[in-house]
């Protein structure tokens, strides 16, 4: 009978493989990449066939924009100017974020691939599993990452359900929320994938810190070990620079766009307040039908 530990290990790697498949489907991974619980990382060469899902995401982005144009009346027509511009800006920002994310994923293929190649090289050199991280520590990192993903899915699922079947039912906002689903989904996936790289880097730095802390200065060979650890730190620094290059611009744009959307929302609220609008009843507060 399989032990609890083996079940946890198998479930962790299986769930992680499923998440990596999702990252591949949304166009973030454009080369074969697998993490097996016994053989470790398997990294393939980039081929056009591995980028088919990237092209699918580009097509979905174009379709999303065309549908928004086609359904313009449902989205913006009949709203006050501030409402229409607020919705329009937020939709354009969401689509722009998807375009930048997919562009970074395409032009950063080799940078992305080099991250995993360096992790595998460090693991081979140090007899570990992923970088400096052994399998047991990696399982803990994966469990932490999977738990975060489940929390995000649960929260987003509740929000989406309330918006689709509660607050926005029968209103123009229902169309707006529907058309923004795809841009928001890609943006959330990007944040989660960035979080994975942050967790893996943090785990490797902890292992390096542990190695440095376990050194005894009077011991023989300290100088050689320090040189080896300095080389390892250099490799981790290169990986970190590649992560920043891969995610830096798109994440900065994400944050800037988020602040821009908040600014639009605040301006909209200020305008409604100045006009004394009474058309903002929320079902989640008063359990009434949402009115436009």
Order of strands across the main sheet: 1-2
The percent of residues in helical segments reads: over 70%
Q: Spell the H/E element sequence.
A: HEEHHHHHHHHH
How many strands appear in the DSSP assignment?
2
Count of the domains: 1
Unreliable stretches covering 5 or more consecutive residues: 280-292
CA-atom Rg in angstroms = 24 Å
User: Sheet with the most strands?
Assistant: 2 strands, antiparallel
Strand content: under 5%
| Overall outline | elongated
Integer average pLDDT: 82
Class derived from helix and strand content: mainly alpha
Main location: membrane
Membrane topology: Multi-pass membrane protein
Transmembrane segments: 6-31, 52-68, 88-109, 141-161
Subcellular location: Cell membrane
Describe the structure in your own words.
- This protein is mostly helical and 292 residues long.
- The chain has one domain (4-215, 224-269).
- Helices cover 76% and strands 3% of the residues.
- The longest helix is centred in the last third of the chain and has 54 residues, at 222-275.
- It starts with a helix and ends in a 6-residue tail after the last helix.
- Residues 280-292 have low confidence and may be disordered.
- Its main location: membrane.
- Gustatory receptor which mediates acceptance or avoidance behavior, depending on its substrates.
- It is a multi-pass membrane protein.
- This is Gustatory receptor.
Give a quick precis of the structure.
This protein has 292 residues and is an all-alpha fold.
What labels describe this entry?
76% helix; membrane; mainly alpha; 292 residues
């Amino acid at each position: 009978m399989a032990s609890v530990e083996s079940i946890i290990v198998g479930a962790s790697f299986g769930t992680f493989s499923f998440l990596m498949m999702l990252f591949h489907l949304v166009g973030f991974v454009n080369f074969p990449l697998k993490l097996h619980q016994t053989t470790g990382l398997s990294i393939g060469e980039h081929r056009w066939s591995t980028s088919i899902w990237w092209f699918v995401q580009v097509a979905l982005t174009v379709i999303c924009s065309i549908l928004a144009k086609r359904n313009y009346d449902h989205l913006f027509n009949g709203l006050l100017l501030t409402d229409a511009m607020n919705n329009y800006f937020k939709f354009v920002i969401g689509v722009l974020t998807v375009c930048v994310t997919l562009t970074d994923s395409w032009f950063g293929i080799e940078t992305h691939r080099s991250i995993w190649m360096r992790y595998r090289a460090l693991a081979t050199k140090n007899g570990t599993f992923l970088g400096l991280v052994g399998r047991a520590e990696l399982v803990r990192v994966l469990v932490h990452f999977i738990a975060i993903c489940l929390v995000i899915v649960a929260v987003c699922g509740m929000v989406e359900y309330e918006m689709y079947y509660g607050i926005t039912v029968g209103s123009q906002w229902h169309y707006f929320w529907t058309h923004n689903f795809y841009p928001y989904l890609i943006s959330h996936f990007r944040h989660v994938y960035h979080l994975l790289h942050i967790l893996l880097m943090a785990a490797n730095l902890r292992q390096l810190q542990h190695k440095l802390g376990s050194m005894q200065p009077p011991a023989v060979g300290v100088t050689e070990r320090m040189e080896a650890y300095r080389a390892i730190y250099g490799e981790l620094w290169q990986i970190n620079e590649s992560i920043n290059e891969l995610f830096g611009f798109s994440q900065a744009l994400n944050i800037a766009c988020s602040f821009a959307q908040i600014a639009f929302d605040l301006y909209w609220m200020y305008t409604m307040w100045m006009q004394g609008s009474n058309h903002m009843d929320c079902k989640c507060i008063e359990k009434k039908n949402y009115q436009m």
